[in-house]
Amino acid sequence: MQITARELYALIRDVYHQLQNNLENQLKQFDISIVQFGVIQVLSESEKTSMSELKQKIGCAPSNVTTMIQRMKRDGFVTTTKNPADQRETFVYLTKKGKETKEKVNVQYKAFLKENFSYFDEEKFITLSEILEDYKRHLLNVEKK
């Protein structure tokens, strides 16, 4: 069977969207979105994170991150403070509720990964990983041209 570049692109896109949909369904019970899950993961890596670091790590538009942090603050997942040395900079922290949610979500996330990637035996998993890493490098080079 011959597959065209367009069909392969659509297949990769569909797999990505299905994984996102499956994760979204797992996160519903915690009342958080996929992007909020990403924010919680980033914030759990260090005690405090600046808004600019957060924007860079999660790859969202600055206005989207600001709105999301305000919503997460309202819902009790995060708190913010101004940098005493530079009032233009805002630090974001996980609250106790945010840390507790992270622990619960991580259990569910591990189950999500296990279930969604159980299709692959070790050999297929490694092969696909290597192919995708090589392809990612190729795409980065294409982007630079």
The ordered H/E elements are: HHEHHEEHH
DSSP helical segment count:
6
In whole angstroms, how far apart are the ends? 32 Å
The portion of residues forming beta strands comes to 5-15%
> Structural class per helix/strand content?
mainly alpha
Mean pLDDT: 93
Gyration radius over CA: 19 Å
CATH fold descriptor: Arc Repressor Mutant, subunit A
Instruction: Summarize the biggest pleated sheet.
Output: 3 strands, antiparallel
Looking at the structure, what is the overall shape? globular
How many β-strand runs?
Answer: 3
Low-confidence stretches: none
**Could you name the CATH class?**
Mainly Alpha
The total domain count is 1
Q: Tell me the strand order in the biggest sheet.
A: 1-3-2
Give me the CATH architecture, please.
Answer: Orthogonal Bundle
Share in helix:
55-70%
